[in-house]
Amino acid sequence: MSEASGSACLSNLRYSSKTEAQTAAMKPNLFIIGSMKSGTTLLWRLLASHPAIHMSTPKEPSYFVEPNQLRELQPWIWSQGYWRSQKIYLDLFKTSGSKTYAGEASVYYTHLPLATGVADRIMRFSPSARLIYIMRDPVERTISHYWHRVIHNNECRPIEVAIKNDRQYCDVSHYSMQLAPYYKHFSNNQIKLLTLEQIIDNYDETVRSLFCWLEVDDTITKYQLKRENETPNIVRQRMELWSRTVNLLRRSPVSRASIDLLPESIKYYARRLFTREINLLGIDIDPVMEYLQPLQRQQTKELSALTGREFREWKALNS
User: Fold this and answer.
1) Can you tell me the distance from the alpha carbon of 137 to that of 43, in angstroms, rounded to the nearest whole number?
2) 253-261 and 240-250 helices cross at what angle (nearest 10)?
3) Could you report the per-residue pLDDT of 33-82, keeping only the tens digit for each?
4) Helix (H) or strand (E) holding 30
5) Which of 19, 41, 155, 317 supports an S-S bond with 149, CB 3.0-4.6 Å?
């Protein structure tokens, strides 16, 4: 059995709230569960700035994602190996001391249907945990997700083709679908919903409300609002034939190792030769928006029914 296959045999013990030689105080009890490209890094830094809260570094260990699924979603996070044992994961929180919360922020905790069973695993591990789910205008989030994958995951298809043919983009923006398992396993008062627009438009009040919900000092707002991981106006995108060739080569351990051993200078010139520069300001996204708006308006109606609130702040969705 391969290492990855063996790790996929997830036992109840691994995620149990009762483990030998580990105390409850060492366990994370605060989780930012997503959504990707919605301000999770901003929120992670904000929470870490509070003296009563310890947030893990790295930000998203993704321990509760089934390892084989994590390897498909994000090989780099998988390679860090926090999924290998509970001890490795809990070592991220060993300096939390007597703080009220120890937390982390893994966006792949809301990546259905590509990451399944996460809510159940978190519930078995920390049944009294607090969960924060931050959302963003789903049209803007979906488009930002595409450019993120162009930059970091070698997405080579045109934007309209990719979004229409790869469910991942719209599924991550289907917030009610992503939240439903958490409402099944946790009570409503354990789940805090935020939007990126709330934080930007009404920062002080939103931060005080968040800290009040966590029952920590809500007068502490040291962190200065700063947008992070924003998509640049100029990106480089792999040419499709080159991307397919590289992906094919990387399936073989021998050729993958050979590529990895190439000098960085050669890799750099190869990337420049087989990629094209794109100015995002010159891209016509109207066809993409025309496709997304009716779909995501319906999904937002489902979200409103689930959460009992409306989302008038989402301008691109409602334009």
Assistant:
1) 17
2) 110
3) 999 999 999 999 999 999 999 999 999 999 999 999 999 999 999 999 99
4) strand 30-32
5) 155
Tell me whether strands 234-238 and 275-279 are parallel, antiparallel or unpaired.
Answer: antiparallel
For 217-258, the pLDDT digits (tens) are 988 766 666 667 777 788 777 776 555 666 666 566 666 667
- Describe the crossing of helices 138-152 and 286-307 by its angle, rounded to 10 degrees: 120
Chain CA centroid to CA 167, Å: 16
Q: H/E element holding 194?
A: strand 191-195
Q: Decide: 115 and 73 in contact? Cβ < 8 Å.
A: yes
> How many domains does one find in the chain?
1
Of 93, 106, 100, nearest in space to 22 by CA: 93
Diameter over CA atoms, the chain: 58
Which residues lie closer than 8 Å to 59 by C-beta, 6 or more apart?
A: 40, 41, 44, 104, 105, 106
Please answer whether residues 213 and 192 qualify as being in contact, where contact means their C-beta atoms are separated by less than 8 angstroms: yes
Domain that holds residue 16: 3-142+170-230
Cα three-residue angle 258-76-162, rounded to 5 degrees? 95
Backbone angles phi, psi at 32, to 5 degrees: -85, 115
